[in-house]
């Protein structure tokens, strides 16, 4: 069981690092969006630092979509998914391992790089730390919600657009609590702990519901 | 293990492909599934593998303890389940760890398929026949009683077809089962043949417009 799980995790991490993997790509996309915003808004540092956490969160949500459509589709196309249904582990564990690998290659690097990108939107050091913390807590929720959409569209050719339309509305609660937690850290009416615990709870719920739903979607795909 | 299929029917996209398919396989037996293109050979294998729900009928396996049927079989089909970016050895190591019950080392399995030199080559560089042989090497890296082979000799040269026939013979001698969908003789000795015919005509629901 552990062996199959770690084999899946190791394989997906290896594939993300090889040619055609999308790991670095979503980080570059994240950077692109964050760079574009100051150009669009102009050099108003007060405005930028006020909406900075929201920009970083929006960019993170959009960057999660990059490569998400290939999460299960690439395995569906080449028959690896048939192999996985016959694995010594249940399909839920397969989904969990694959989403974990995808979070380690997209979500976690985003959270780690966000302080650096926060410089571009004039965030204070405290705001940078707060945004990085909320991204680290919230991106797992984005990854698991995205996995459900990826499983639903696994058999659809060019399903990337449908995937975005299915998945983005479901990411709204995570976005709301992520941004409000980052802003609570900078001084507001709510204490930081309140939105932060809700954010963590959203990630945990998404981990359970997302894993079960994605596995069910893969089973019913035919 | 024993495999029993009773009265199986298949429907895809609303159309009936076949109905009333029954057979039973004892340990060591081989079954050649034949039929015209589109008769439902691959669909039958997909149902046995658990990737497709039967429209009617049942598939049972006896003598496999608590394992499910999907955990007791190998599938080698048109989609080979190999990742182009990984080397042949990495693909086989992954399959062995994922499927459990390891048998031969990936290197030894590749050597048995006559491909010892490709172990450290990404599968994307291999020819169609070589890819097929790497996929067939998966049969050797972990031990599973039922082999489902969908046109296993496609793209294989004569020498490899001989190797495959010998592999299937050894597997059956150890009590394993082989179900192969094919258009050609596979070298399966005294195998039974299951010919999938067209489905019985469906009685259309009578529409009463009166």
Question: What labels describe this entry?
Answer:
heterodimer; A: mainly alpha; 81% helix; globular; B: 210 residues; alpha/beta; five-stranded parallel β-sheet; three-stranded antiparallel β-sheet
Blueprint (SSEs and pairs):
The complex is a heterodimer of chains A (222) and B (210).
Chain A: H1 2-17, H2 23-41, H3 45-65, H4 70-78, H5 80-85, H6 91-118, H7 125-152, H8 160-170, H9 172-185, H10 193-219
Helix pairs in contact in A: 1-6, 2-3, 2-6, 3-6, 3-7, 3-9, 6-7, 6-10, 7-8, 7-9, 7-10, 9-10
Chain B: E1 2-12, E2 15-25, E3 30-34, H1 41-49, E4 56-62, E5 73-76, H2 88-99, H3 106-112, H4 128-141, E6 146-150, H5 158-173, E7 177-181, E8 192-195
Parallel strand pairs in B: 3-7, 3-8, 5-6, 6-7
Antiparallel strand pairs in B: 1-2, 1-4
Helix pairs in contact in B: 2-4, 3-4
The SS-based structural class of chain B is alpha/beta
Q: Please state the CA-atom Rg of chain B, rounded to the nearest Å.
A: 18 Å
Q: SSE order of chain A in H/E notation?
A: HHHHHHHHHH
Instruction: Count all strands of chain A and give the number.
Output: 0
Q: Mind summarizing the main beta sheet of chain B? A: 5 strands, parallel
Strand order of the largest sheet of chain B: 5-6-7-3-8
Oligomer: heterodimer
Q: Uncertain runs of chain B with pLDDT below 50, 5 residues or more?
A: none
Strand content of chain B: 15-25%
Portion of residues within helices of chain A: over 70%
* Helix percent band of chain B: 25-40%
Question: What's the average pLDDT of chain B?
Answer: 88
Instruction: Choose one word for the global shape of chain B.
Output: globular
What is the overall pLDDT average of chain A? 90
Number of helices of chain B: 5
Dominant shape of chain A: globular
Alpha-carbon distance between the termini of chain A?
26 Å
Give an account of the 3D structure:
The complex is a heterodimer of chains A (222) and B (210). Helices cover 81% and strands 0% of the residues of chain A. Chain A is mainly alpha-helical and 222 residues long. Chain A is globular, with a radius of gyration of 18 Å. The relative contact order of chain A is 0.15. Helices cover 28% and strands 25% of the residues of chain B. In chain B, helix 2 (88-99) runs parallel beside helix 4 (128-141) and helix 3 (106-112) packs across helix 4 (128-141). In chain B, strand 1 (2-12) and strand 2 form a beta hairpin. In chain B, strands 5-6-7-3-8 form a five-stranded parallel sheet, with helices on both faces. A three-stranded antiparallel sheet of chain B has the order 2-1-4, covered by helices on one side. The model of chain B has no long low-confidence stretch (mean pLDDT 88). The interface between A and B is medium-sized, with 25 and 30 residues. Chain A: The chain crosses the membrane at residues 21-41, 47-68, 89-112, 132-154, 161-186, 198-218. Chain A: It is a multi-pass membrane protein. Chain A: Required for the export of heme to the periplasm for the biogenesis of c-type cytochromes.
